[in-house]
Amino acid sequence: MRSTPPVRRRRLGLPRRVFSQVLLMQLAIAAGVAVLATGLFLAPLGDQLDDQAMRRALAIAQTTARPQVAEELRSTRPAADGPVQTEAERIRKATRAEYVVVMDRQGVRWSHTDPERIGEVVSTDPGQALAGRDVMEIDDGTLGRSARGKVPLRDADGDIVGAVSVGIAYDSVRARLIHAVPGLFAYAGGALAVGALAAWLISRRVQRQTRDLAFSDIAGLLAEREAMLHGIREGVVALDRGGRVRLLNDEAQRLLGVGAEAVGRSPDEALGTGRTADVLAGRVTGTDLLTVRGRRVLVANRMPTDDGGAVATLRDRTELEQLGRELDSTRGLIDALRAQDHEHANRMHTLLGLLELEMYDDAVEFVGEVVGDHRVTAEQITERIQDPLLAAMLVGKATVAAERGVALRVSDRTRLPDRLVDPRGLVTVVGNLVDNALDAAAGGPHARVEVELRAEGRTVTLRVRDTGPGVAVEDRELVFTAGWSTKEPPAHRQRGIGLSLVRRLAERQGGSATVDAAYGGGAEFVVVLPEALAEAGPKPDHAVTVTANAAGANPAAEEESR
């Protein structure tokens, strides 16, 4: 026989949806408040009504206890038709009291609602009233439970001759209390209805804002969000509608070099003024925006959110930029080797022809000229620039420049001792400026790039001039902005980083980087580096790989990866 699956019973409990849970909780709160308020109102109401009844009875008793009644009490006998009974009944009917009893000092009644009880002793102790004190109480007597007021009865001389006791039936007080209850419940029901409507409106709003999810779903999403934000290898920065940072994941803190104290502050306050703060604040728009933060090259994207804020993502492109520059260096090396190979083949063919024509003297002179040109260029550079790392880089750049049809010249005024504090940083600065100058001058008539390095005290001033089209006046600050470039980017990386690094390295050493028009046309970049030279002393031991730099390697990547 086939067994039937067991029926799964649904457990009773709170509904899962936030809307239903919030509505039920608010209804329960509103109902509880209504019941509590009603109870708190009813609790003292009975005592208040009792107090009012006793005070009313006391007031009637005080009105009855006049000297005239005291004189009648002395001059007459207790009787059903006596003046004391007549006056007491008149007051009772006028005030709608339950009873008005006048008694003498022995406690004998001179008035009563039941005439047959006149002349009898009262059922309750009148001692306090006969002693001269006013009494308010709720007690049981011959007429049942009542609110009582007792006062002494004094004659014209102030002597106590008896007492007056007035009672108001307690059932009438309870009736007033019961009569007030329906009105109270009506008010409580109205308040509960208003509370229920407000609870429904609030629950609807909560439902829209939470997308009708259950509390457990919201808690799960929050846990997943925290794990995702702190686990991904991209920086995430969330900003509120006021432009203040409200969230920074671990990777964003690492890339931006800030801590959790940046939360609650604007990008300008947390990061300082600059392109990175402009991108995060939305003052610079676009996709895949390049920015430099410290020694890192970052790619930023910013997306607005429905609540008026924004979320920005940051990717670290330092290593990719380094690989791109290494690829450029490799291509430059290949181009230089191809040019040297081609030129070497032409020279060998020329030498072979001279030998076949038996023009031996011309062949010797030709070989001497070829070797001399390279030696003179290298000797001139190393004589004026004594730092081997920088000299090797410029020798390699001269080879690449010759292949591109650009004359790279080191100014006669160049003098740089071998006392650089940060030779790799200066190599980065010179390499980037020379590369930009070669790009600008290549293809033009009489293309030329001139490099000048002068040392004055401990300050190094670098000037790189080219014969290119120059830089427009309105663009002379923009060229140093990360991501800004007038040239088409290569396939493997973006442009607009080199000059930004130049200015950042200069400012990090307390210097400056500017651009102006060169004499005769083109552009002239000037970089001033205070404290760039060490005090005169032993020469630093540099680890130099001349071959790679002489082939045109751009060391800017070394700065980015440090």
UniProtKB/TrEMBL annotation:
Entry EC number(s): 2.7.13.3
GO molecular function: protein histidine kinase activity
Record bears the keyword Hydrolase: no
Keyword terms of this UniProt record: ATP-binding, Cell membrane, Kinase, Membrane, Nucleotide-binding, Phosphoprotein, Transferase, Transmembrane, Transmembrane helix, Two-component regulatory system
Reactions performed catalytically: ATP + protein L-histidine = ADP + protein N-phospho-L-histidine
Main location: membrane
Histidine kinase domain sequence ranges: 422-533
Matches recorded under SMART domains: HATPase_c
SUPFAM superfamilies reported for this sequence: ATPase domain of HSP90 chaperone/DNA topoisomerase II/histidine kinase (SSF55874), PYP-like sensor domain (PAS domain) (SSF55785), Sensory domain-like (SSF103190), Sporulation response regulatory protein Spo0B (SSF55890)
TM region positions: 21-45, 184-202
Enzyme's top EC category: transferase
The keyword Iron is assigned to this record: no
Location in or out of the cell: Cell membrane
Superkingdom, natural source: Bacteria
InterPro entries on file: HATPase_C_sf, HATPase_dom, His_kinase_dom, PAS-like_dom_sf, PAS_fold, sCache_3, Sensor-like_sf, Sig_transdc_His_kin-like_C
Pfam families with a match to the protein in the record: HATPase_c, PAS, sCache_3_2, SPOB_a
Topology of this chain in the membrane: Multi-pass membrane protein
CDD domains xrefs: HATPase_DpiB-CitA-like (cd16915)
Name of this chain's protein: histidine kinase
Organism per entry: Streptomyces parvulus
